[in-house]
Design a protein that fits this description.
This protein is of the alpha+beta class. It has 9 helices and 12 strands.
Length: 234
Amino acid sequence: MSRDDGDSTASVGVLSFGSVLPGGIDAIARGGIAASQAQLPDPVRKLHQALLREFLAAGRAPTTDRLRTLAASLGLDAAGPISQLADADLVHLDRAGNRIRVVYPLSAVPSDHRVTLAGGPPLDAMCAIDSLGIPLMARTAGTVVSRDPRTRAEIRVSMADAGTWTWQPVTAVVLLAASECSGPIAAACQHTAFYATRESAELALLELPGRTGRVLEQEEAAAIAETEFGPLLS
């Protein structure tokens, strides 16, 4: 890739979480986020899409009451779809079952990856790849602001309407990493982050014993984000 002006386009073919992360993670075992959604019954898939659209518009997660209303509008009893969406690793509630905490790729809890879409409210993403997936999913321009966990250097990644990415600094990369585990993909999110340089990301991976992962160039990170999140609102 060229780093002359910070612009890049995804031209590396089809990449996914499954090429890097442990297969025991729920969503990975189903083929990834988009594949997991595609395997749902149509009304439940539409419920996930409705939750995503409301979250994008409001900048916060719908309430569980709103979830039940949306489910009823699709002819669903909420209890079953909530369980199906959790099993598909797409929507998770808090332990008490009172609040939505995750509607992948969006986080209802403040994170280190803030995304602002053109004309929209600020949003929080679960991880670096998820943050790139939000403008791709919404098919609109947007900007991600994050920090290198090691150096605290700011990283800013923008997508134009045409799908062209601009990364600052131009040396920035993404470390996609997880422990060898089973369960929800949230287990990987705490280790998947932007780094200002490849050297910083490689050092971070060495400092994470028991983790497996890969340092992704910019095009690779954008390609995985497209595979996992681009189709969700189609």
